[in-house]
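[[Sequence with tokens]]
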Amino acid sequence: MLIIDQVYFFLRDCPSRLIRWAGSNAVFLHVRVQSWNNGQINKNFDGLPFPLRSWGEIITTLKSNESYHTELKCLVRENLLPREIVVQIPRTNIWRWKNEPADKYQTFDLNLKGTQDYNLIRSFSQDKRAKRVFSAYVRLSRFFVSMAQGIPKFQKHVHDRRIQVVKIIDRVKGTLGLTSVLKIFHISVSTFRQWSMETFTSCFHSMFNKCNRIYPTQLSSSEIATLKEKLLSPRYQYWPISSIAFDCLRNGTLPLSLNTWYKYAKRLGIEMLRPKDRRKKQVVGIRAERPNQIWHADITRFVTLDNVVHYIYLVVDNFSRKILSWKVANKVSAMIRRETIGEALQSFKGGEGPIVLITDGGPENSLQEYLDTLSVSITHQIALLDIQCSNALVEGHNKVIKYNYLYKLSLANDIELNKSMAWIQNDYNGRPHISLKGLTPNESQENQVLDTASLKAKKKNATEDRKRFNFRNRCVSCEG
């Protein structure tokens, strides 16, 4: 840094040298010449934010025989100086600078770009309308982003369009930053990396065009073919995917997790029939701790092709979900309800305590006199009257029987309906249920326990076999 005395000595001996030196170092030094009187000078040194400012002040002290800084010449050539500064420079100099060869000022492009960016920012900051328009667009963009994020199942839409999402993020992340863009889509960095690999890697050995080297645990082509065959098999056409998955896990034909079944069924475009008005459960209802502790009874209507209304009576065990008895009739009757309870008691082998029978308040459930005559102790309670819980468990059975079975069948009359109900009872009680953690209602009614350790071992062994298979069947691009 110069000392003030040195600057003064420099100016006293040769003021023109000071001007030339200050011009060549204008980026680092701001020299403001305020007065020149009897060899004395008032000096002010500041850090210069932009060279044009010092040029405008230095030019006021220039004389005709003094040299000009190269940057000043370049600015004159590009017509970037204000008029009040240009008028202080001789016109002959301006004409000569503008007509000199262009290659004489080869390094000026970088300075020119910085000058242009500065001018753009300065012009924008001084234009009130431009700032209002820009602020309006920013507010609109933020509003639309917040509105889009409020759309139901927004994350599902983002996931379904993850290829387009990855591509647009790659295009704008250099400008806005990866973290800021990911916040808009509510996805993490690891999720973005995963989607990027899915987007930009492929393998023709994979049914879903996913690289076997990067995704070695994906199902092999033979496993996918087996999974598809199971989902479309007539044997399983009345079963939900969860029951098919547990059945294949238990018998070892396809030991996969339930999520894998759902994922591949969706990718294969296979959907199982389910009620359109299915609602998510909000409250867990009453639950028994052992078989034959709580029974549920209810009736539901079904119309056959001969346009006759039939009433299906059910008695269901709360703990095992087993259909204990059923009956088809053409009327609502307490006598028929008594018959279904009697049939359920035929398989009853005794319990630790009395049975609690839960029904609704319909006329068919006037049962107290009948229950008093039985040798088995049964306590009758009316849902939402004697207890706060509803009779939802058996109502769920009614929906499953109709939507998963009866609505898929073309039943002409009550004879066919009775045959179908006998088969439905055996099929429903004999298939694994996700609510029973893979057990069948028949097994749960007998208080059996599933060997979960052996099932985990089956899935682990299948995963290791799958890795080895995918490693052996890598494509040419994977080998490279």
